[in-house]
Amino acid sequence: MNCPKIASKIKKIIEHEKIQVILANKKFQTFEKWFLLVFWALAIFILSSLPLNDVFIKFDIWTFIIRKLAHMFEFGVLAFLIYRLLSQIEKKNFYWNLTWAFIFTVMYAISDEYHQYIVPGRHGVWTDVLIDSLGAAIAIWLIYLNHQHKKFLKKKKAK
User: Fold this and answer.
1) What sections of the chain are H helices per DSSP?
2) CA 148, 153, 157, 159 torsion: positive or negative?
3) Helix crossing, 17-24 with 26-49: angle to 10°?
4) Where do the structural domains in the chain lie, given as residue ranges?
5) Which candidate, 103, 100, 106, places its Cα nearest to that of 87?
6) What is the C-alpha separation between 49 and 62, in angstroms, rounded?
7) Do 104 and 110 form a contact (C-beta atoms < 8 A)?
8) Do 135 and 72 touch, CB atoms closer than 8 A?
């Protein structure tokens, strides 16, 4: 079976009215957001539990940069997922959701570095908390810019 046929079948399943009812259900949407958030947090935790191998111990500037960018990405995604969940729970307070998404992400970054500190073969580095926080801040900033852009388009459309 080729990819277009598989994609067509998946599209038919998703477009089925019973599936659409499930996807529109608020409880399902909240569950989905919780599931993705917990999955991502567990992935970070598991990756933090793995001992560093010789590839990462050897100092290479590109490896270092890629690892730090991965930290930023991981925690940027975490901030986004936390924001999505908070905005599902508290829809009206956009800035509150952004602030708490950032705070929760930084708290998780601190706990992640502590976790790495106590795991044999790992080293918790507090500068990584700053890098993780920068990733969260970038994600929050992108969410904010998207929100402002939508407000601008809404005002423009209303005129």
Assistant:
1) 3-15, 17-24, 26-49, 54-57, 61-89, 94-118, 126-158
2) positive
3) 70
4) 3-158
5) 100
6) 23
7) no
8) yes
Yes or no: say if 99 and 137 are a contact pair by the CB < 8 Å rule. Answer: no
Q: Is 121 left (phi over 0), alpha (psi -120 to 50) or beta?
A: left
User: Which residue type sits at 107?
Assistant: M
- d(CA 61, CA 18) in angstroms, rounded, equals 52
Residue given tokens 């209303």 in the structure block: 158
Query: Structure tokens of 28?
Result: 């399902």
From the list 44, 93, 91, 38, the residue with the least C-alpha distance to 70 is 44
Count of alpha carbons within 13 angstroms of residue 74, beta-carbon side: 24
3-class state of residue 25 by DSSP: coil
**Which one-letter amino acid corresponds to residue 74?**
E
pLDDT, tens only, 80-136: 999 999 998 877 899 999 999 999 999 999 999 999 888 888 888 889 999 999 999
Tokens of 100: 């708490």
